[in-house]
Amino acid sequence: MLSAERNKILTQVGPGTPMGDYLRRYWMPIGGASELDANPIKPIRLMGEDLVLYKDLGGRYGLVDRHCPHRRADLSYGMVEETGIRCNYHGWLMDEAGSVIEQPYDDIVNPGRGKRCTTKAYPVKECAGLLFAYMGPQPAPELPIWEPFTWENGFREVVISDIPCNWFQCQENSCDPVHFEWMHENWNTRLNGETAPYSAKHLKLVFEEFDYGFVYKRVREGQRDGDPVWTIGRVTLWPNGFYLGNHFEWRVPIDDENTLSVCWFFMRVPKGREPYVQDKIPTWVSPIKDENGRWISSHVINQDIIAWVGQGVIADRTKETLGASDLGIAMMRKRFFDELDAVAKGAEPKATVRNPNVAKSIELPNITKKTSTEGITLKEHENYPLLKVRLKGFRHCAGQPPEVWRAFEKAMGIGSE
Questions:
Q1: What is the rounded CA–CA span in Å between residue 412 and residue 384?
Q2: pLDDT digits (tens, 9 = 90+) for 327-338
Q3: CA triplet 328, 242, 327: central angle to 5 degrees?
C-alpha cells in the first residue's frame, strides 16, 4: 500500500504537479486523425487543460487554448482558415504555434502597433492514423514510430473512450497478467451463464524492465515448452501504454478524475490479398455503459474498464493489500517514483528518444510479429485461436460501427463483398 501523499504524487496530473510535468515530456496520443474529417474542430481536455484540437484548411494540425486570448470566447465554436483557427466572436486568427496572426479591426485602425499577443499552443503530429501531442518543455523529443505503425497490408482502426477515473489505475492493469485468467476468462464463463470449465491457472510470473517499459512473462497450466508468452512476453509500454503484438492501448490523463482511452488495432490481410492499401483509418467511440446505465461487460477492454472504475474515481491505495500477483504493479510504481526524482535532478525521462534514426522504427517484443508482417492464408486463421475469433467479430471494444466492420470484412475477404 501507499501513503496518501505518495498516492497523490502518482495521480495528480495538472500543470506544476510532479506527475503532470513528467507525463508532459512524452508525445501523447490524443485521438484519431479521421475524427476531424466531419468537423475540423474538437474540444479536448488533457492533463487538466482545456484545449481545442483542429485541422486547418491547409492540412496543419493545431492544439491551442480553448479560450481566445482576446476576451476568452470558446474556440470550439470557431472556424478554420487556410492557416489556423479563427475566433467566431471578433475574428482573431491564431496559427498552430499560438501566434495571433490577424486581429481584423485592430489591424485596420492600428496597423503599426508592433508585436501581437500569443496563446497557449502545443505541437501535434499525425502517425498511422493517430494524432500525438507534446505538452512539455522544448526541445521536444522525437515522436517514437513504433514498428507496427510501419507495417503494410493491414486493416487499422482507432478506438477511443472517456473513462471516469484516474489514469494510473488504468495503467496498472497493463502490468497485471493474472487478471486475464479471472476477468477475461473465468468471469467471462460466468457471464455466459456457465460455471465451468475455469481457465488454466497461472503458475509462474516474471517481470523484466527494458528500455521502453516492462515485459511480463508467464507460465500457465498445460502451457507448452517454448511458448512465446514465456519466451517473449507482453509489453507494458512506458509511461502509459500497453502493447500486445497487433494492438496498442494508451491511458491518457484528461484530468485527475478522467482518462482518455486510445487504442490502435492492426489486422494483417490474408495472404493472396496483397497489396492492400487502406484509404482511411477509421476512428470510433466505444460506449462504456448500456441503456440501463450499467457498465458494458461483453468486450475485453470494457471488462477492464469495470475493474478500473470500480476502484473509485481515484483509487485509495492506502487501503489496498498487494499480493504475489502484484509484483509488476510494485515495480512500476517504484520506477515512477525513481523517475520523478531523477528528472527533478535534470535526468532525461525513461524511454524518450532524441535520435531521429532510432525513432523512425522502434521494435518491441512481439509474440505475433510473423503473422502480422508475413501474413497467413485465410484457411490458416483456423489454427490461430485469437485470429480466428477476430474474423468473427471485434471482441476488444463494444460498439464497433457496422460500416467499420463491413470495411474490415472487405479487406479480409470474408462476408459478402
A1: 15
A2: 999 999 999 999
A3: 5
